[in-house]
Amino acid sequence: MRLEYAVLAPSGNVTLLIFTRVARDRQPVLAERLMAARRDIEQVGFVEPPTTPAADARLQMMGGEFCGNAAGALAWYLARGGRPNRQVLEVSGASVPIRADTNGDLVELDVPVAVRAPRRAGNATVVMLDGITHLLVGDAPPRAVRAEAHRWLRRSGLLSLPAAGVVFHRPRGAEIEISPVVHVRATGTLTAESSCASGSACVAILQALRRGCDTVVAVRQPDGGVIEAGARVSPDGRGVIAATVSVRVRMCEEGVFAPAGARGIRGGAHPGRRRSRWRISP
Questions:
Q1: CATH number of the domain residue 153 falls in
Q2: I need a surface site. Which of 2, 12, 209, 280 has the fewest CB within 10 A?
Q3: How far apart (Å, rounded) are the C-alpha atoms in residues 56 and 52?
């Protein structure tokens, strides 16, 4: 088995994309093993043929969740390979294909907004998107951020969802600073992410509903970068009808996984190096 792959860093969120077809029931286990072998990788997505004629490709995330950063990474990679700068992508978790526009290293893409309105959970707010739910906590991140995020998810009843995150957020001048932690049920992972596009979109949604008007916010990520996130409200100002994010994508490496006789996964260069060959047993 030979698996073609690329490692990209959309807004610093190190993402592994697998371009060789992998059966859906094998994807979570494979992703879990890859992330265990490469601690720098925060998430894994599998690129598949689209199921609708209007779409250019399909991104199936490791736990069936929606991921804005990974979708932006795929759109950038396709444009880099000669595809049009405007892509229409199917993304797991999203009920309809999303638009993604690439301009240099910047990708602007739609975020699928859920029909249900945000709700309060204690002194936090639950914002639901298609494919992922985020709990927004208006506070600085604690020192043990993963443990505290797990407590928030458990108390709020969100651990049972396919994908849910906790986004600690606070104002920082004209920006909003976030610390996101994302739980994916299928892989059993709880990751303090370097950046989170969907979490940034949820921050924009919350701000737009508080102001009652269309809103664009600069969201400072843990890795130091900024995601520009926007939300468009309904005519009565009580709901959000659209959201977008803009992410900058950097290529880290690309290559091929080759079969190995030994059990498990071996090797792998640091993502800053372009050339790498991982070895994975069938």
A1: 3.10.310.10
A2: 2
A3: 9
